[in-house]
């Protein structure tokens, strides 16, 4: 399997490249985002192992430079940034998985193998309902034609509820899906996200879209 490793730390790059070769991957290496984008524009890859903090063009820039559709490599993001927001941003920007530094090399390989088993998302789905339009790939949402300026969590919540319309999500489920398990977030922060999202939807003329089932959770019916 062909892989592009993008990492600016020379030492980590060399160690990972050696390990990946030993694990059976054919790996090209890039030391910054511009070099990575050049490789990606020229060659086809099955995987990209992508550091987020990179010189010249950061990991988010590399994600944006990736082709859409079935030809797109699977991307595993590596980052020392332990912020939930960065992980959510990377996943929303098209990363397929995320690994926090420091990590065990065995885990990197296991995750790459897991990604290889995951079916490719070949279609770009846009979720639409009651005047609300959400494009998960482009990470854009609008209501009645006006763009919604959403935080990553608000976007994640809207995507979740639109994708599973009619299903009630308890606060704990929402929290796990939009914030990740290592977060400091609580049930209370779900309420804050719901409140913010409802307000922005109402401002765009879509109030009442998200319903609350007392004691059960939230849904878009
Ligand atoms: Ca870095």
Give your account of this protein's structure:
- With 221 residues, the chain is an alpha/beta fold.
- The chain has helices at 10-22, 33-42, 59-65, 84-92, 105-117, 152-163, 171-179, 187-203, and strands spanning 2-6, 26-30, 47-51, 74-79, 97-100, 127-129, 132-135, 140-143, 146-147, 211-213, 217-219.
- The protein folds into two domains: 2-117, Rossmann fold (3-Layer(aba) Sandwich); 127-219, Arc Repressor Mutant, subunit A (Orthogonal Bundle), CATH 1.10.10.
- The protein is elongated and about 55 Å long.
- The structure holds calcium ion.
- Residues 8-9, 51, 53-54 line the site of calcium ion (CA).
Short structural summary:
This protein is an alpha/beta fold.
- Note poorly predicted spans: none
Mean pLDDT: 87
CATH topology of the largest domain: Rossmann fold
Structural class: alpha/beta
Query: Would you identify the CATH architecture of the largest domain?
Result: 3-Layer(aba) Sandwich
What is the overall shape?
elongated
Oligomer: single chain
CATH H-level superfamily of the largest domain: Response regulator
Give the helix proportion (percent range): 40-55%
> Regarding CATH, which class of the largest domain?
Alpha Beta
Number of helical runs?
8
The number of domains is: 2
Distance between the first and last residues' Cα: 43 Å
Rg: 19 Å
Order of helices and strands: EHEHEHEHEHEEEEHHHEE
Which compounds are bound in this model? Answer: calcium ion
The count of β-strands is: 11
